[in-house]
Amino acid sequence: MLTSKIKVLNEEKIANIILDLERGKLKIPRFQRQFVWERSKIIKLLDSIYQEFPIGSFFIWEADRQYSKFFKDIAELELPKPQKYSMLDFILDGQQRVTSLYVVMKGKKVGNIDYKQICFDIQLEKFVIRRRKFKLGDSIIPVYEMFGDDHLSIFASLDSEKQKVFNKCVNTFTNYPLSIIKVTEKELSDAIEIFERINQGGKRLGIFDLVVASTWGDDFDLRQKYEELEGFLIEKGFGRITPEVVLHAASLIIKNYCRKQYLLQLTRDDLKDTWPDIEDAFKLAVDYLSANLGVKIYDFAPYPAMISLLTYLFYKIKGHSINSKNAELVHQWFWQSALGERYTRSRETTMEEDRKKFFDKLLAGEEVRIKYPIDLSIERLKKS
Q1: CA–CA dist 316, 270 (Å, integer)
Q2: Would 213 disulfide with which of 31, 40, 140, 222, CB 3.0-4.6 Å?
Q3: What does the pLDDT look like over 16-63, one tens digit per residue?
């Protein structure tokens, strides 16, 4: 008898989802980015539930044991690590809604944001932010207190009309039905493909997220490596960098190309073996831009593509040092590309072309001529 590999659960309750998250069965995958919403957006979510409006479906992937370490460990949530040999549920679509509900109902603090301050105003029947300490009898009650161990004492401190509203709120959240799509017996690549197709109308996973997922292993995590590099550059004063600029540099170095189809061909072994040298080359490229071309911070770079291409150059060049002749050519390339708005359109294709026709020739000691078209006027210069 065939068993279905996809299930649709239309009557799952919020309390069950929160419990699964709290006990470590439901996890956030490593490639997810921001994991909780700002308070104003959470208040809208809470209001939608209270008004019994739909809040969208959730997509959960029941993963095999081989992915037991594929979760994102978020210290602020204080969640237990899963059992080593247990099956896990990864929430791929809806994780911000789930974690947002969790931090509010458990009264967590994430970074500088205290979610204990999200309260329910019983008189107005509205969710609000209140910074004053709660006392029994107050009509503005922190959400986490309404679902906490002392909720009966809070209920008893209210008059009969307020008790009715209190019960209405608690019962609405307790019985609110969630729509969950659950897939089983799928590999990571299949799970992501399903998610992409389901989520076409929403915020899709970016190319960096897909590469992080496809190259992840116990011994290598691209997101972690990127965050370590970014942290170094922030501390140095260069500022935050986008993950794509690092990904393009790595793909140019490993594959010679950086269009999407080549990015998705990157393997864990490719990245793991070359990462230390890629990281060093990236730092050298940043140093060169800062010391020689006035790019003191990331936002000063005319195009991030320039950092990727210079990383390629420093990775390939012997001794990681540019002689005076090549430095003059690099400066010509930089300014003609900037003034000619070279990487405005067809960015990846243009980067591949410049890698082949300019940087590879430079590395080989061949003659290089740079004649990029520049259509510059005073008005365009002012505007840019």
Answers
A1: 16
A2: 31
A3: 888 888 887 787 766 555 567 788 899 999 999 999 999 988 888 887
Burial class (CB in 10 A: 0-12, 13-18, 19+), 192: buried
Q: Are 288 and 322 in contact (CB under 8 A)?
A: yes
For strand 26-27 and strand 88-93, is the pairing parallel, antiparallel, or unpaired? parallel
Q: Where do the structural domains in the chain lie, given as residue ranges? A: 6-193, 206-383
- Helical residues (DSSP H) of 159-242, grouped into ranges: 160-175, 188-198, 207-215, 222-236
Question: Can you name the residues that pair with 59 across neighbouring β-strands?
Answer: 93, 181
Token digits of residue 53: 């409006």
Cβ neighbour number for residue 56 with a 10 Å cutoff: 13
CA dist., res. 96 & res. 124, Å (int): 27
- Report strand pairing: 118-121 vs 140-142: antiparallel
Q: How many CA atoms lie within 13 A of 44 on its CB side?
A: 6
Q: Return the CA Rg of the chain.
A: 26
Question: Is 357:268 a contact under the CB 8 Å cutoff?
Answer: no
Burial-class residue 352 by CB neighbours within 10 Å (0-12, 13-18, 19+): buried
Note the pTM of the prediction, 2 decimals: 0.61
State residue 39 phi and psi, 5-degree precision. -65, -40
Per DSSP bridges, beta strands 177-183 and 58-63 are parallel
* Of 108, 28, 116, residue with least CA distance to 76: 108
Cα distances (Å, whole numbers) of residue 305 to 102, 191, 208, 244, 384: 39, 31, 15, 9, 17
For 250, the 3-state DSSP assignment is helix
d(CA 70, CA 31): 9
For residue range 198-246, list pLDDT tens digits in order: 555 445 567 888 788 778 777 888 988 999 999 999 999 999 999 999 9
Q: Apex CA 313: angle with CA 312 and CA 318, to 5°?
A: 120
User: What single letter denotes the amino acid at residue 214?
Assistant: S
Between CA 139 and CA 156 the distance in angstroms is 12
Q: Which residues touch 54 (CB under 8 Å, ≥6 apart)?
A: 48, 179
